[in-house]
What we know:
Mean pLDDT of chain A: 77
CATH architecture of the largest domain in chain A: 3-Layer(aba) Sandwich
Number of helices of chain A: 28
Distance between the termini of chain B: 14 Å
CATH class of the largest domain in chain B: Alpha Beta
Oligomer: heterodimer
Mean pLDDT of chain B: 76
Helix content of chain B: 10-25%
Largest interface: A-B, 94 and 136 residues
Number of domains of chain B: 3
Helix content of chain A: 25-40%
Strand order of the largest sheet of chain B: 14-13-12-15-16-23-22-21-19
Number of helices of chain B: 10
CATH class of the largest domain in chain A: Alpha Beta
CATH superfamily of the largest domain in chain B: Class I glutamine amidotransferase (GATase) domain
CATH topology of the largest domain in chain B: Rossmann fold
Low-confidence stretches of chain B: 269-280, 451-464, 484-488
CATH architecture of the largest domain in chain B: 3-Layer(aba) Sandwich
Radius of gyration of chain A: 47 Å
Number of strands of chain A: 34
Shape of chain A: elongated
Strand content of chain B: 25-35%
Amino acid sequence: MSADVVDGVLDAVRRRLLIRATTRVIAIALIACGVVVVLLLAADGALALPPAVRRTLRWLPVFAVLAPLPLWVRVWTRAQPARLALLVDERAGYGNVLSTYRDMNARGPVAEAFRHRTAATLGSIDAAVVVPLGPDRLWAFAGGLGALALATVITAGGADTVMARWWSVAATGPGGSTAVATVGPEARRLPTLGGIDFTIQPPAYSGLPTTRARAGETLAALPGSVIEIRGSGTARAPGLSVTVAGREARLAPRPSDEGWLVTWTVGAEDRGIALAVMAGEEVLEQRVLPLRLLRDRPPVVTLASPVADMVLGTASGTILIEARVTDDYGVADVRLHWVLSRGSGESFDFDEGEWTWDGVDATDNGRTASLSLGLDTLGLGPGDLLHIRATATDGNTVTGPGLGVSGTRQIRISREDDLSDVTTMIGFPIEREREPLLSQRMIILLTEDLRDGRGAMTREAFLAGARDIAGEQSRLRGRIGEQIFSRATGAMQDPEAHLEFEDGEAEVFLDELEGLVQRGPVIDPVTGIASIANVEIAAHEHDSDPIVAINRTLLTVYNYMWDAERELRAAALDPSLIPQNLALDELQRLRESERVFARGRVTAPPVDVPATRGTGEVDDARPAPRAAVVLGERAGPRVASEIDEWLRADRSLTGRAAAIALSSLALDLLEADLDPEASEILARAAERAEAGDAPGTREGLQRALRLLNATTIRTSEAPSGAPNSFAGARYLEAHAARPGVAARGANGVGTTRPFVFATVRYQSGDWDSAPLVPNNLVHSLVQYTDLVVAPEGVIVDLASRDVFDFPFLYLTGHLPVFFDEAESRNLVDFVERGGFIFIDDHNHDIDGAFHRSVTAELQRLFGSDRLLPVPNDHELYSSFFVFDEGPPITGHELSGWGDGLIHRQLSGIEVGDRIGVLYSNKDYSSEWSYHADNKRFLAIDNTRFGVNILLYALTR
Amino acid sequence: MMRAALALGLLVLLVVGPRLGGDETEPLAVDGSTTEVSLAQALATGPFDRPTVYSASTPPSGVTQALLAGAAESGRRVEVIVPGALPALTVSRLGPLVARRRASLYVTVRGTAGARIPLVVDDASGATDTVTVEVGPSGVTTNAIAVEPTRAGANEWTVHAGGASVVAQGWARPEAPLRILMLSGPPTWEGRYLLRALEAAGSDVTVRQELGRERSITTRGAPATASASALEGYDVLVVLGPVAASSEASIERWVAERGGGLLLVGSIAGRRASAARTPSSAPVRADASRLRWSGPAELIPLPSSDLTVDAAALPVPRSGQRVTSAPTLTDGTDDVYTTVEWVGRGRIFTTGMETWPWAMEAGLGEAHRLYWESVTEWLGGGLRSDTHLVGPTVHVGTVWTGRVEGMMPATFELVGPDRKETLRPVRTSDGAHLVRFLPTEAGGYALGADLHFGAPVTTGHEGGSWVEAALEIGGAGGTVRVASAAGDRGGRPLGSPTPLPWIAFATLAALAGASWARRRIRGLP
Lengths: 956, 525
């Protein structure tokens, strides 16, 4: 019986010992695991362990859990009865009775007594005393460490994130920078985007309905549209990242009944959106939705009435003003703007305001507005100039309002002697000449009056009248002769002198011209361009005498006038009217073509290029080195290379890893604002990769690659005898004698059009306020450089395609500038295509009409933030002469005329890294407005900065 | 008696001896064992009308091929006997490849005269394009196809035509911007827009624009003159306006001998002006919608546009032994505005037409950029490499042996359908360097030197040297015959192994010596 009791005691102790060992091992395992987890997360947080390291270290907690197991095994194997007996003896405090009892071999009464007493003792042994099982410090420590580990996990982004980051790490993307998730059994537990659809709510002003679409369909929206993107997946913030491509903005997704939801208000620069499920820095899933941004064009405004500019004899009566406006999404407002200018020369007063329309009516796609303008109420006087234009805004409250402007109509109240001009000018009245001429129209009217009144006149009076008219005709013919003489000979025309041809002088003049032709051409020693009497040989008119060619129209007019004059002197009025009318027609045509602006004003003669060449002092000219052009990263080729790598490499085109990598490429294209179509195709290829459609993915990649490479395989018949092998080329190499490749001889054949200084004529304002500037600058260019230069400038309409023939344009004026639609379009195209336009405020008044209007127009056309100051160390100031302190000060600035300010900087609009629009309000137009010959009276030529501007335009 | 016999023998030898050296009318036979020196000597000294026949199982070496082509071009009768039938489709390639820079494949298609055969070109990424070519009256058409290596290292294109497929491979150097030196006279709009296009294309452009009065606008480091040493650092030289006479010679050498590319804009080569016809120095207004483009496939023509541009007719330099030239742009009449030339190892592009209106007036800035980018890339494709590899067509299971000519890289990298490995050239006893490998699978093989080393060594495996030799020698005026049986020969090999006259002379001399000694021993006079 005693033996059973002993065994029972030992069994109980052993049981409790194993239980205790088990719980302690568990506690130790938890402590070890907690310590490892805390250390790993801390290390990852501090060092951002790479995926490969994490893949290895993630097993450490498992090992930590298993590490105490040997302890338990040790307890289990060593829990033998002898050891247990010793334990009981020790813990129960009975000495070694139990051990002695088990191993006792003695017999006899003492032994019996010992057994008896021990058996009694054994009954009182409590196994719980020998092996207590209650909680101890180890568990307390384990609990504390567990709390620390939990806090660490929460700090690291939560269990999901930590698990995803440590247990889902698998691969690296093709670019080497994007780590992506494995697709395996674990992936099913990861957060996902799920199916995506979206609702597009266009801005209210557009009146468009709300539309729905699913991912994969084209996403097109107006700026300001609110797009609600919904996903059915389990991803949630902060693991769900939503980024807008085109601006560095993140959107905040929020949970919804179906999954998640994000609201995106489309901005004007947005190019798409990228949705990504993140685990720390790892991308678990990514989708890119490229956006096709719809553009809301500004309203188109036309002035239906008056249809053209007007010159009124008196400021009385009523004028109908009617504007028509159309817009793609509706017109919000139509206004009628006016500017009244008074003055002349450099002195002008301006007033401006708006009139209220009599009525505004809605049409199918816009509005019409009309006003009957009573001139009597405006207080207009002779010489006043009224500018009228209609403006309209659309309802775009997002990127707008879009502003549309009509062309400007000018209404001028004529002065008493206006009609005596050679041609009646629409526009601001010019300064009067001292000896006004009768215009051809007036001479015709006089002739017709004389003819009609002949019956009531004596013969003498009739003949005297005819002679008087013939005299007027002669004077007018003389003016035309001056024009021809000035253009043909290059002689300086004295602005104060009035040359007239007397009878017979014209023939002498023509003989002189003939003589010039006979003497032959003058060859420019630098350019080799032949000129006869400084008149450039027009390439397209090389079949005719150059002087005749360039003056053909004027000579024709001259001849008609001569015929008319002869008939008038013979009192043959009807026969004289025929050439008179022909001359009038030619003058009108001349004015329209504006090649020669024959209206009696002072004009600058063509520059005598051969004589002027190289006469300028260039000691101070030190052109600065040309700045290297820095190109940004070319995302297109890089993405193309990566696509090519995907197609070539033996790499799976399906699965999440591929989908993430491909959508990253699509995002790169969007961010770089490159081919949106290629981006869209790539995004769809990513979706196909996600769906496991390898052929579809491959097809998409190939299409995108073809778009990005932008070159198609092209074939051509190989030229006969072309070397088609290495060996052939080597043969040529070995046996070629000197082939004679040197280029010399003709200079610039076919590709060296002379530089032509082009002055812009625009519809509003006084575009020709500085007629002497072009030739003065041309003269300087010839003086200081060897550039091939046309001896005189041209005038081009900003509204015509001709502006694109002249990559340098000069625009100036005093009066308000408003560009109509054609002018606006051409100006933007001109600048974007690499043209250079120099705009100078001739008015020079603070906040003057030109400055205010032209800067507003530039901001309207190019954006409010594009016109920026040009730094004074810009290469513009060192392209030939060096101007250390920026733009040189003008005389008007120093004299305090105008706004009394010295403007320290010019402004410019850059296209790429080059100036496309250079704007000055320093009034260089006044500074440089003098005859080039007078340059010799200046200590320092003040047009040198003009040379810099021209050379900058020509070389950058 | 003996003396008489010897005298008679010498007399006979004198008369018959020269005939023992071979018949002068017999074809001069050349094969793989013929040394290049002996061939050059034979061509230089032998009768001009003596036909020359190359027949061997291996194609001629580069020098032999060049000598034969030169002989054919100079009017000799040269015949090349090609073993087997000429393939219906062959593809060859000229010039080194650079990643992302356009190059040409020359595709020769044989078929029924007048047949229109679709030509399909695949690159390794699967991008496919198709063009249709028309076989000429001779039953052959050769077309150039522009391709673009998409990456450094081995690139591969597969050309399909008429049921045949050929894989062409090439080794592309790493992508690098073209190094362009632009020397310009006074600035012009053409120069300004050209410069902008080249910079936008990513080229590394160094500029010197002369303004006159000894003033110029330059990029830092721009050379003052186009000296030989200055040009070494550039791939393409752009000249707008006249060239200093002192630079002519160095530019000539740089193009012809160093493989440089020369772009002449608005200039006419003075010496060539009289070559074909008198140039029209007066520019005319050309209707851009009537322009007709041709020339190298790499060129991307300017699109047809409703423009009128200034242009001057250029003389077309006469093609010949020294220069191969072709008009590239005409206006539908006889006037030529742009020409291309292959001069020695280099290339020249001459244009007399302004192009900036495409960018400015027509608003086709991107097309304008692409045009100039393609022109300069073509110019940059001259043979600047000093290392070439020639060898026969690759056959599976047969060891391929190629001969390395020129500078010797330490190793070559072989990329094939089955493996990638490094090869070391083997030096033979005669000083030649050979590279060998055993192709084990059908497909394209490319050999290149170490990419980082940068030595551009290339070879295509299909349409190998036989086709090149046939094209070149045939194109130079020789005839190409397909051998009916292996070993078909046209005559006795050059350099007969049995010099019979010398043997006869030595025999007679020995007999004379023996006779003299015998007489001396016997004491006879």
